[in-house]
# Entry
Amino acid sequence: MFGDDPVTDILSRFSRPYSTTLGGFSFVTNLIRDAFDPTRARPKEVATIPVKKQTEAPMPGVVGFSAKEEPGFEVITCAEPSARPTDVSRSSPLSSTQWSQCFDRDGRVVDPVQVKKLIFRGGVADDIRQEAWKFLLEYYPWTSTAKSRVDIRKAKTEDYFRMKLQWKSISADQENKFSSFKEKKHLVEKDVTRTDRCHPFYEGEDNPNVQYLFDILMTYCMHNFDLGYVQGMSDLLSPIFFVMQDEVDAFWCFVGFMNHVHENFAMNQEGIKRQLSEVASLLQFLSPDFNHYLESSSADNMYFCFRWLLIVFKREFNFPDIMRLWEVVWTGLPCKNFHLLICVGILESQQETIMRQRLDFTEILKHVNELAFRINVEDSLNKAEAIFLQIQRCALIPACIAETLGLEHNEAQQDDSPPSSPDVS
# Structure
């Protein structure tokens, strides 16, 4: 379809499953190539993940759709938004000393809600991240004891290797007669060899850590037959295995992450479509002037947020920053879908540039793509929290936004009339 160019090949290969269900792909493909172009320059620091041409795992393409064409889309008209707090700040990461004080004598977390609040406020220190992520990603229940966690890990280890043996036992002859398995295996193999290969943990020929990525992702295909492997999943696994540095632990933490974001990789793309629609609604409510500009530029479909949402900002931040962002998001605080408020905050930070330079849709897409590794994670988290507090303090909140953020139902507008957000002192 596109010839041998590696960027266009990314999109043409992944578009096939969707072509029979959703239209307009070829138009959108031309517009999003820059967003997934692996040739763009990256910062050359150890903590970042520079990408060389043809070395980064490809990303799925975007199927054409408009958020405002979705059934039940709520038209939002907005007066001047409520005052946004300016005193939001971050704290120091949860330390090993603080972490040890969170457990009782049986090794049970005394107050999981408080622990999550501390993690939301500052993340976790490097030396406890491996253990803390197991709770955040539901490997260990918050109510588990030290003894029960030993039993849990033993059972999960047995489950993992049982599933791994299932695909390892498939012979070459069987594989040749099992086309879907063969295709998945080839795709996983191709992707892991191009995932974060410039990071010290994965660089170099015959790096065993790359093989672990392959084994874990193939085992996930056995764990979730319906979803299997989809391009982009290797991006989500890579930091998790870097933190865990253990095949079993990384697998089950990855499973926990995928339990929350699996809709991002569904064939019908309903999860991504819904999130793009929700970002559009939030921006329309909070920044009507910016939203009006995007509408006039045919850019209010929010396609430029696609990569952010699909792999939860993985390619926008270096390893230390994405680990911090993820662990904050995994707390589920201060609301549902906090990552959408991060999207809105980053977009608002670019509002002046986009509007002053009169960027059209293609130029906005290129501009957003070039923000990678230049976004301050702490500022982004602060701004997202301030946006939440701004919405929470509004006297009248559109029902769709209240539902998106999980606010109390009585805070939302009940009728179907166009909502507005009055000033709140």
Notes: The CA atoms of residues 335 and 400 lie 14 Å apart. The mean pLDDT is 84. The chain has 20 helices and no strands.
